[in-house]
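User: Structure please.
Assistant: Input sequence and predicted structure:
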Amino acid sequence: MLVLTRRAGESIIIGNGIKLTVVNIGPGRVKLGIEAPPTVRIDREEIHTRILQEQAADVLAAVSEGAIHRSEQNTTIVSGSDTNVLPSHVVESTETPSIRTVARSRLPRKPR
């Protein structure tokens, strides 16, 4: 972590086009102003964490729903002179992935 000392009104430039300015320093608080391109999303840490958790929940729901739909379908593969043969490693699984496995691979790591 880079630690810099700045006074009120002083700025830090990050990358191309992100400017962080110390607006005010009060007792126990620092007000920061952030200028960034519209394509850069800026969130407080607690909001960012909540968004990541909601996205992980959406992914879990989509995976569970997709597995249910896949298990209901009958898949027929016909091989002939005018069709392509699928490689042996391309096999559609009808197994529903464990929610624990998906949850572990989707949730963000906690900072140490």
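Residues 1 and 63 are 36 Å apart (CA to CA).
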